[in-house]
Amino acid sequence: MTTETHNQICPVCDSPIKNGSIEFCPKCNWELVVITNQASTELKQYLDTKIKLHKETFLKSNSLREEVSLRIHSIEALEKENNELTSKIKILNSELSNKSEEFQKVKAKAEDTQEKQNKILKLEKIIIELEAKVEHLKINKLIPPI
Ligand SMILES: [Zn+2]
């Protein structure tokens, strides 16, 4: 078996390879071995099978890597969405807290107004009673009892 490293393209991953500069493909780690035309059919078949198996492994690991990458992207997207929702909830909570404070103030004002109205009603009642007493006294003075 003659080892030469003059491949132009990696037989496994189709990466372009510089002449004789490296012994392994930098992309798929395939050993860049070339057998001469004089090599036995068995050796050629052996190498073909080896390339085929390595290619399968390479493609499988590639698709796994892609799948992992896709999942990472979707996890990142979900995390981003989660962060956005969390800050939206935070804003809504703070708005709710403000509204609740406003509501408490309005409620307090309403209660205060109700209290004042009750006091006015009581005062009106007292005034009416006093007026009645005054009227009664006037009548008593003007018309003495028999
Ligand atoms: Zn390769």
Set down the secondary structure blueprint.
Layout: H1 41-142
Bound molecules: zinc ion.
Zinc ion is lined by residues 10, 12-13, 15, 25, 27-28, 30.
The counted number of beta strands is 0
What is the molecular shape?
rod-shaped
Mean pLDDT: 88
- Report the total helices: 1
Provide the β-strand percentage band: under 5%
Uncertain regions spanning at least 5 consecutive residues: 1-5
Rg on CA atoms, Å: 48 Å
Distance between the amino and carboxyl termini = 152 Å
What compounds sit in this structure? zinc ion
Describe the sheet with the most strands. Answer: none
Order of helices and strands: H
| Proportion of residues in helical segments | 55-70%
Features:
binds zinc ion
What does this structure look like?
There is one protein chain. With 146 residues, the chain is mainly α. The chain has a domain at 62-146. The protein contains 1 helix and no strands. It has one helix spanning 41-142. The longest helix is centred in the middle third of the chain and has 102 residues, at 41-142. The chain is rod-shaped, with a radius of gyration of 48 Å. The structure holds zinc ion. Residues 10, 12-13, 15, 25, 27-28, 30 line the site of zinc ion.
